[in-house]
Write a structure and sequence with these properties.
- The protein is of the alpha/beta class.
- It has two domains: 20-165 and 381-436, Rossmann fold; 210-374, Rossmann fold.
- The chain is built from 17 helices and twelve strands.
- It has helices at residues 31-41, 53-58, 74-84, 98-109, 144-154, 167-183, 199-211, 213-229, 245-248, 256-270, 291-302, 316-320, 333-339, 363-366, 375-388, 398-413, 430-436, and strands at residues 20-23, 45-50, 64-66, 89-93, 113-119, 126-131, 234-238, 276-280, 308-311, 325-328, 343-346, 390-392.
- α2 (53-58) links the parallel β2 (45-50) and β3.
- α3 packs across α4.
- The two termini are 44 Å apart.
- Pfam families: Capsule_synth (PF05159).
C-alpha cells in the first residue's frame, strides 16, 4: 500500500510525497505568503510562525500561529515544533537572525531541508535562494574547477538588468511592518527584534538624512570629481550598514566601525605614499553614526588626513572606473567591483572570495600589489551563481515580486536549490571564517 502522504493518480502514476513546510520571518513584502500559497496549491502542507504584529499583518489565518514566549525559550520550542509537526522543509529570510539561527540548527539536527533567502547577489532585479545557508554558510563551491563545471552545466544565462527598485515602495514596506510593532508590541511581549535600532529612532534619523539629501549630494559630486582628477592609486572602502548580519554573524567584527579601524590602520602603514583611500557611505545608512567624524578623527590619529576621504554619497560605478582596488568585509559591492575589473580584498570569506577572483594575500600587501581578477573565471562565476543561487525578481518592484514568487516557488517545489552547481558539505567557507573568529 502507498505510504503516508503518497498515492496513485487516476492514470496510475505515483504522486509525490506531501511535504510539510514551515515559514518563519520573510522579507518586508508578501513574498513568503504568496510562495506558501503556491505550495498549498501544489498539495503540500504549509505552516507559519509569527513573532510580532508586523509578521501577523503580512501573513495570518489558516496554518499560522504566534510565538509570544521569551527569546530564551525559543530554541527548545522550535525543536519540539519541528518534530511534533513532522516538518520536512524550513524556509527563512536571513539565516542568522537570532530566531532563524536557532531554527536552522534544530532543523539540521532533525535532517530537515532548509531554504534560506535574501536579496540578490546580482542586484538589481534578482533574489537569492540557497540550500542550507548564506554567505559563510553557503554550500556553493569555492574552487575554480567546480565553478567552471557549474557554469558549463548552466549554459547561457540572461543577465539583462530588470525590475528597478522603488524607494517609495521600499519605505512603505518598512514603515507598514515596523510601526505596528511599536503600537501593538504589547501583544508579543517576548519579541526580540533583529534590527539594532528602535524603529522610532531609525525613522527620526532618516527624516534628518532626507532633509539634508540635496546638500550631501552636491558635496559628494564635488568630492568625487576631485578624486577622478587626482593622481596616484585610489582605493575604495564601501561601508556596510551597522547592524547588518553580514557584519554581526558572518564576520569577526562586532561593528562596522571596528572593521573600518582595522582597514584604515593597514592603509596608513602599508599603502604607497601617493595612494588615497575613499571611504564611501552605504546608500541605506541612516546617519545614526557620524561616519564623517569617525573617518576624519581616525585619519588624523593615523597621520593620514590628506590621504583619506569620506564620501557621503557618490556613485560607486564611477569610482570603480578610477579605482586600483576595493576593500570590503563581505559586501555585494565587492562582486560589483570584480565585474568592473577591479581588484578586491575581502576581510572574511565572502561568496566570491575565490582564488583567481579576489586578492588572496594579506591586507597589508594589497595596497602595493593588488591581484586582478581572472575575467574568464569571473564570467563563469557570475553565470554559475545566476543559474544556481539566483532567481529573477525583486521585492521592491511589483512586477519583480510576481517574478520572484514564480522563481522561488518553482525552485522549492522541484527541489533544485543550488542546482546546477553541486552543493558542498560542510559549507566550504566555514572553516576559514571560524579561523578568523566568525561566531558561527
Amino acid at each position: 500500500m502507498p505510504g503516508a502522504g503518497e498515492g496513485q493518480s487516476p492514470a496510475g502514476a505515483t504522486r509525490q510525497p506531501v511535504r510539510r513546510f514551515l515559514f518563519l520571518q520573510g522579507p518586508l513584502s508578501p513574498l513568503f505568503r504568496r510562495i506558501g500559497a503556491r505550495l498549498t496549491e501544489a498539495g503540500h502542507e504549509v505552516r507559519r510562525i509569527n513573532f510580532c504584529p508586523g509578521d501577523w499583518l503580512h501573513w495570518h489565518g489558516r496554518g499560522t500561529i504566534s510565538y509570544r514566549g521569551r527569546s530564551a525559550d525559543w530554541p527548545a520550542f522550535i525543536a519540539g515544533y519541528l518534530a511534533e509537526h513532522g516538518i520536512t522543509d524550513l524556509v527563512v529570510h536571513g539565516d542568522t537572525r537570532p530566531y532563524h539561527r536557532a531554527a536552522v540548527r534544530a532543523a539540521e539536527d532533525l535532517g530537515i531541508s532548509v531554504a534560506a533567502t535574501e536579496l540578490g547577489y546580482l542586484r538589481p532585479g534578482w533574489m537569492t535562494i540557497e540550500r542550507g545557508g548564506l554567505s559563510t554558510l553557503s554550500r556553493f563551491p569555492d574552487t575554480a574547477d567546480a565553478i567552471r563545471a557549474a557554469a558549463h552545466a548552466a549554459g547561457t544565462v540572461d543577465l539583462t538588468p530588470r525590475y528597478p527598485g522603488s524607494f517609495a515602495l521600499e519605505a512603505w514596506q518598512d514603515v507598514s511592518y515596523h510601526l505596528p510593532n511599536v503600537l501593538l508590541g504589547f501583544l508579543y511581549p517576548g519579541y526580540r527584534r533583529h534590527t539594532p535600532l528602535h524603529p522610532v529612532v531609525d525613522y527620526s534619523r532618516w527624516l534628518l538624512r532626507l532633509a539634508g539629501a540635496r546638500r550631501r549630494k552636491a558635496r559628494a559630486v564635488r568630492r568625487q570629481k576631485a578624486l577622478a582628477d587626482g593622481k596616484g592609486p585610489l582605493f575604495l572602502l564601501p561601508l556596510q550598514v551597522e547592524g547588518d548580519y553580514q557584519i554581526l554573524a558572518h564576520s569577526p567584527f562586532a561593528t562596522m566601525a571596528e572593521a573600518l579601524e582595522r582597514i584604515m590602520t593597514s592603509f596608513a602603514a602599508h599603502a604607497p605614499a601617493d595612494a588615497r583611500l575613499v571611504v564611501k557611505s552605504h546608500p541605506l545608512d541612516n546617519g545614526h553614526r557620524d561616519w564623517q567624524r569617525c573617518v576624519t578623527e581616525l585619519a588624523r590619529r593615523l597621520g593620514r588626513e590628506d590621504r583619506v576621504v569620506f564620501l557621503d554619497g557618490g556613485a560607486l560605478p564611477e569610482l570603480l572606473r578610477r579605482a586600483a582596488g576595493l576593500v570590503t568585509v563581505n559586501s555585494s559591492a565587492g562582486l560589483e567591483a570584480l565585474r568592473a575589473g577591479v581588484s578586491v580584498k575581502t576581510m572574511t570569506p565572502a561568496l566570491y572570495d575565490v582564488a583567481g577572483l579576489t586578492h588572496q594575500g594579506e591586507l597589508d600587501g594589497f595596497w602595493s600589489a593588488p591581484e586582478a581578477p581572472d575575467s574568464a573565471l569571473l564570467a563563469d562565476f557570475v553565470t554559475a551563481i545566476a543559474a544556481s543561487l539566483q532567481v529573477r525578481g525583486s521585492i521592491h518592484n511589483r512586477a519583480g515580486l510576481d517574478a520572484a514568487v514564480d522563481g522561488m516557488a518553482a525552485r522549492i517545489l522541484t527541489q533544485t536549490l543550488n542546482a546546477p552547481a553541486k552543493p558542498v558539505e560542510p559549507p566550504p567557507r566555514l572553516a576559514r571564517a571560524r579561523a578568523l573568529g566568525v561566531p558561527l
